[in-house]
Amino acid sequence: MTSVKEFQVEKAPTPDRLGQGRFLFTDDYSVFDWGKMPDAIPEKGASLCSMGAANFELLEDNGIATHYGGVIDKGETTTLEEVTLPPQEMVIDLTRVPELPHEGRTYDYDAFHAAAGENYLVPLEIVFRNTVPVGSSLRDRRSPDAVGLDIESWPDEPVDLPEPVIEFTTKYENSDRLLDRDEADRIAGKAGVEELENLARSVNECITERAASTGFDHQDGKIECLYFDGELRVADVVGTFDENRFAYDGQQLSKEVLRQYHKRTQSEWVSAVSAAKETAKEEDIADWRSLCDGEPEPLDRAVIETMSNLYTAGANAYVSRELFDAPAIDAAIEAVAEL
I need a surface site. Which of 95, 224, 231, 313 has the fewest CB within 10 A? Predict the structure, then answer.
C-alpha cells in the first residue's frame, strides 16, 4: 500500500511475464513525505483516478506505452468515457519490485538489479519542470542562463522556462535524493537514462497540451516507469493534482495548496520535519520520521470541504465532463484563494 493508494495483486508478475492488479484510490493525502495525514478529503481518490485515467488514455492515443488497463465501473473494466460514476479503481499491469538492501542511507542497487532481470519498476522518479516558482530549489542549484533564460538573476515571481528541465530523483530511498545524470544512469539499470528522459519529455508535452486546452497551466510533474523485455512503459499514475503542479487563472490547483497551508498554519511541525530529515542525513539514518519531534494536526472542516471542491471541480474541468457534483472551477478557485 502507498500512502494514498491501496494496491491489489490479482496475478503476480514473474521474471518473464507482467502480472495484473488494481489501484484503489483512497481519500487520504500526504505532504512532505509524511505518509497518511490525519484527515481524508472526500472524493479526492475518485478525482485522481479520473485524471489519471484520462491522461493514460491520452498517452496511449499518442503512441506512448503505459501499464494502464482501464477503470472499474459496476464491476467491469472500461474506459473513462464509458463510466457512469466517478471511478476509484484502476486496472494496471504489474512488474516486479525487488528488495533494495541498505545500511543506513547507503543503498545496494547492484543487488536490486541482480534480482530485477528484464522485468522491474525503475527505481527512479523522472521530474520535468516547465516553470520555476519562487522558492524552487532549482534556483539554488542552477543559474538562469544554465536553463536557457536570458536574465542575470532569478526574479521575485515565477518564470516560465523556454524548454523543460528534466531531473532524476531516487524512488525507494527513505528520503528523495536528487541525482546527477551518471548516478541516475547507474541506478536505472538496463533502462537507459536517455530513453527515460525522452519519455518524460513526451509525457510532459502531452499533459501540457491537454492542460492548456482546458484552461490549466501545467507547471511541473514526474513519471515513474517499468522496464519489461527491453521496453519502457509509464507506470504508477501520471498527471494528477498530486503528481503534478497545475495552476488555473494564476491560482495553484494541486497538492501544493495543502503544502503551503501547512507551512502557514502548522509551521512548527513543518520545521520539525525538515530538521528530522537533516539529522537523518547527517547521522546516516534511513527512517527520518523516527527522529521527528511532533505530529501533524487535523484540518478544519471548512478546509477539508474547500479542498474536496478543488479536487472535484478541477477534475471535472480537466476531463471535460461533469463526473462530480462540484462547484464551477472558478468558484472552487476563489474559495482556495481565501484559505
Answer: 231
Compute the distance between CA of residue 176 and CA of residue 292 in angstroms, rounded to an integer.
Answer: 17
- Answer for the pair 129, 178: CB distance below 8 angstroms, yes or no: no
For the chain, percent of residues with pLDDT exceeding 90: 85
Give residue for cell 536517455. Answer: 194
Residue 119's DSSP bridge partners are 228
The count of other CB atoms within 10 Å of the CB of residue 304 is: 18
Closest CA to 330 of 213, 241, 212, 248: 248
pLDDT at 2 over 80: no
Residue 175: partners with Cβ closer than 8 Å, 6 or more residues away: 33, 277, 280, 281, 288
Q: What cell was used for 202?
A: 513526451
Q: Which residues of 60-98 are buried (b: 16+ CB within 10 A; e: fewer)?
A: eeeebebbbebbbbeeeebebeebeebbbbbbbbbbbbb
> Are 333 and 253 contacting, i.e. CB atoms less than 8 angstroms apart?
yes
Q: Which domains does the chain have, with CATH numbers?
A: 5-337 (3.30.470.20)
Q: Are 54 and 33 in contact (CB under 8 A)?
A: no
1 band by pLDDT with thresholds 50, 70 and 90: very low
Rounded Cα–Cα distance for residues 284 and 17 (Å): 37
- For residue 44, how far is the Cα from the chain centroid? 14
CA–CA separation, 314 vs 262, rounded Å?
21
Q: Tell me which residue of 21, 13, 34 sits closest to 259, measured CA to CA.
A: 34
Tell which residue, 168, 170, 165, has the closest CA to residue 180: 168
